[in-house]
Amino acid sequence: MAHLTSERDRVTVAIIGSGLGGLACAVRLQQRGITDVVVLERSDGIGGTWWDTRFPGAEVDVTSELYSFSFMPWTFSRTHAGHVELREYVARVAERFGLRRSVRLRTAVREVRWLEEADEYELTLATGGTLRARHVVSAVGMLTEPRTPDLVGSGSFGGRVFHTSRWPADASFSGRRVAVVGTGSTSAQIVPELARESAQLLVFQRQPGWVLPKPDRDYEAPDLARLNRPGVRRWRRWTAFRSLEKVKSAAETGSKQNLAVERVARAYLESAVSDPIVRSALTPDYPFSGKRTVLSQYYLPTFNRDDVTLVPHAVQRLEPGAVVDASGERWSVDDIVLATGFKASEYLSTLTVVGPGGRDLHEHWAGEPRAFLGMMVTGFPNFFIMYGPNTNGGSVLFTLECQAQWIADSIRRAGPERVVLVRPGLESRLDTSIQRRNKQMAWSQADNYFRSASGRVVTQWPFTQTRYWFLSRLLRGRTAMTFRPAAVLDPSRTQAGVHE
């Protein structure tokens, strides 16, 4: 691993976060000859979200063919890769491209501040040290900061309370009464697992989600033999991507596809849950795709078990050994699992970014994050974002690869002697188009993590990913950016990259 060599280290590129986005960016920079790079990771290991995600049943929702990089395709053992295999894949990517020597673990970044006299950023680390970089890439991701409800009476509860992203290594629920708070995608993965282990399971639901079955299974030997053929793997990857592209049309409010898929979801709910009262409580009152669709073939049938109870109310408060729901009913429990999601719409919430003239990025956003193609903010030079505002939807790795290539190309074009900014007006024009389209989508009609406090949809890309790829190829270089000479560098500094 890389280590701080002094209080004032200097690099060409600092990447914050060693998840899939950070690693993709590091690989693309390396392939363009830019090796003076450091990856700063706050956790004890690489992998980002998949390093932290360790609860039983955690897996991806897209098919495994779409969950490996094009520059390092991989065959997983299941149709939908689980968290253990995903951490193994991340480790293999780091090993193959020699990235471990660039990673500094247990190194959280608190502030990124532009130094106008030097035309570079100074990063303040949680350890108290600092680091200077000509370019900074925030790859902290969208699903990193847990959304933990402020539960009244939590100090008096007496039992275990933890978020799914902070799963204890020694967690055991045998013979215990467990409450799960939340009914989103994470809950759908953990509820069937806990139902098999606990003595009694209570699931507290504030609002139901639309559920479709996910045909996940282990691959058998013949499957793996076929998938390991490069031609077959490429074909399956392409067909999986095209299928995912078609799903986007089902998110448009009132469209023929949207109504058709909602009918499928209603029929599945009817067949999966036997109790009509429970079934009614699990039926959403908003259009399909109003929230992230829950994909699971095990979640809904779990509510047919005698030892599983759906509580169709939010949690009001905690008492010693009990949860009191919003209706006032008291439920005795031993443990509480918070499947309450993440602060997805609060981009870079743990990071202070200060640009030229002392402009604070969060004040600039004023609670409504936006960026050009989700990657650059007007007026913040040499600062890039992976998986930023309005880029969520579809295959995450496809988006990350588009962004890694765009960012690496931008840094290469700038080289160590120039400063790069997005052209004035370009961000706002694209944002207007995105928001106009988002208003036509079902997720603008429901309460979800896609929206900021003001109601603006700040996470979702409402078009196809093919369109995102096209725009990232079209709007680059001088078409999208302006370059100016940077302040003279220290001659001893590593020269990385070649500018135009």
Automatic annotation (TrEMBL):
InterPro entries: FAD-bind_Monooxygenase_sf (IPR051209), FAD/NAD-bd_sf (IPR036188). The lineage of its organism: unclassified sequences, metagenomes. It comes from metagenome. This is Putative flavoprotein involved in K+ transport.
